[in-house]
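Reply to dn_fold:

You asked what the input looked like. This is it:
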Amino acid sequence: MVSLQFITHQTERYSYLESARMALEGGCKWIQLRMKEAPLEEVEAVALQLKPLCKEHEAILVLDDHVELARKLEVDGVHLGKKDMPIDQARQILGEAFIIGGTARHSGQEQTAHSHKLRNVQAVYTERVYDLQT
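and this is what came back:
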């Protein structure tokens, strides 16, 4: 089981693709292409470059938010947040072969209710456990 995932980011120094490439070269086996503010065409262009790199490194590639694009490009899966397409709807579109990840952010009763929505996911993403003041 793959337990650690690299979520792409862009800085003044590194592009989304370059950050993912460095993670792959460092041994990462699971990449989430997350380009929240980018137009769909740009996400697709980067995903098309990243897909063969992930294959070369035997790594999983999931797209953040873009269910239809994940299906079109035949990547490994998609990550869906609370405000994205409902997981059940994504499962209908993608079928069983694709990984669907969802974010668990709540605790207590809210988490119990939210976990019902996550029943069709293969990956659960969590935020920080402790709020550190360092």
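The CA atoms of residues 102 and 124 lie 5 Å apart.
Hope that clears it up.
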